């Protein structure tokens, strides 16, 4: 389908997650002019239909036609056109962007949720005004995205910024030979710095939730303090490699762990020690748009409407 001129009345962003689908219309001032959430259906056709209904509802409410961008927890393979790595929803193996585009009678842009997060924060969030933005989502998993001069860097394999599945750098003897990862490799950063990994490191193999660990550390629990120190050191090492390769102007943290305020103080000294430079000034900052960054970034997959 050939791209049509950008002649829409407004931008619609859709965040397709494992449990819910959210749609927003993004006004020119960055505020939402429409917002709705529904539960994610289990089947593929039902998911496409649910998105169609959300778009139709938004356009009826707003009176006009919107550009449509969709954020998904996976990517569309450039070699096959099929969705891959979207394990929490029923899109794998489908030409989702094409199918949705036919249904909506317009081209649809689809990108992964970490890229949408980074695009949102770089456009009008915590990374606004910076040339090169590295966005990080650290929650149950770990993803990343790169925006330069307001544009997403995707790469021919659509993996640019995917720092969760590179090896933990400068491993210590007790970090070797590396924890096996679901992706087939071992020693992946995600297995050390995600919230799940932090919980397991602190409380054992059945632990999943890291949220209360900072409070326990603040209350003096040695086990929690030690786990947080290991976690900050590992995440700082991972970000130091990003600085060595990309040298971004800012690093924006998102996902559940971005609410752990100690990270903003603890990461820079680790990076200072590891980056190949006599000084390291890269700001590591918290996202501005919180949980809304994904759906906002989906809307930002299309340029602003010119009126
Ligand atoms: Zn991996």
Radius of gyration: 20 Å
The fraction of residues assigned to DSSP E strands is 15-25%
Helical segment tally? 9
Structural class: alpha/beta
Report mean pLDDT, rounded to a whole number: 94
Task: Note the main sheet.
Answer: 5 strands, mixed
Total count of strands: 12
- CATH architecture group name of the largest domain: 2-Layer Sandwich
Structural domains: how many: 2
| SSE series | EEEHEEEHEHEEEHHHHEHEH
Order of strands, widest sheet: 3-2-1-4-7
CATH class designation of the largest domain: Alpha Beta
The third-level CATH topology of the largest domain is Nucleotidyltransferase, domain 5
CATH superfamily descriptor of the largest domain: ATPase, nucleotide binding domain
Amino- and carboxy-terminal Cα gap = 25 Å
What would you note in describing this structure?
- This protein folds into two domains: 5-116 and 292-300, 2-Layer Sandwich (Nucleotidyltransferase, domain 5); 126-287, Nucleotidyltransferase, domain 5 (2-Layer Sandwich), CATH 3.30.420.
- The protein contains nine helices and twelve strands.
- The protein has helices at residues 44-62, 96-104, 113-124, 190-193, 195-203, 213-218, 222-245, 262-274, 293-299, and strands at residues 10-16, 20-26, 32-39, 66-72, 75-76, 83-84, 108-112, 132-138, 142-148, 151-152, 250-254, 284-286.
- The protein is globular.
- Zinc ion is lined by residues 165, 181, 183, 185, 188, 190.
- Zinc ion (ZN) binds next to loops.
């Amino acid at each position: 389908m050939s791209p049509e001129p950008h002649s829409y009345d407004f931008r619609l962003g859709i965040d397709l997650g494992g449990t819910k689908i959210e749609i927003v219309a993004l006004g020119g001032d960055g505020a939402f002019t429409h917002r709705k959430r529904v539960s994610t259906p289990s089947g593929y056709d039902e998911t496409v239909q649910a998105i169609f209904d959300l778009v139709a509802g938004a356009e009826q409410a707003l009176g006009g036609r919107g550009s449509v961008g969709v954020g998904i927890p996976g990517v569309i393979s450039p070699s096959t056109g099929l969705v891959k790595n979207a394990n929490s929803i029923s899109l794998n193996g489908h030409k989702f962007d094409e199918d949705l585009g036919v249904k909506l009678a317009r081209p649809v842009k689809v990108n992964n949720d970490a890229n949408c997060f980074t695009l949102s924060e770089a456009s009008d969030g915590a990374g606004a005004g910076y040339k090169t933005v590295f966005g990080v989502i650290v929650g149950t998993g770990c993803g990343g995205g790169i925006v330069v001069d307001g544009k997403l860097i995707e790469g021919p394999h659509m993996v640019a910024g995917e720092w969760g599945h590179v090896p933990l750098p400068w491993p210590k003897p007790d970090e070797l030979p590396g924890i096996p990862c679901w992706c087939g490799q071992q020693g992946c950063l995600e297995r050390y710095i995600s919230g799940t990994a932090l919980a397991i490191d602190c409380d054992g193999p059945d632990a999943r939730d890291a949220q209360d660990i900072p409070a326990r550390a603040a209350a003096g629990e040695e086990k929690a303090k030690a786990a947080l120190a290991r976690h900050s050191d590992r995440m700082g090492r991972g970000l130091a490699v990003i600085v060595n390769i990309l040298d971004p102007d800012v690093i924006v943290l998102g996902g559940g762990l971005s609410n752990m305020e100690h990270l903003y103080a603890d990461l820079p000294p680790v990076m200072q020690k590891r980056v190949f430079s006599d000084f390291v000034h890269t700001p590591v900052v918290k996202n501005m748009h919180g949980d809304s960054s994904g759906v906002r970034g989906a809307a930002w997959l299309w340029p602003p409407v010119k009126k």
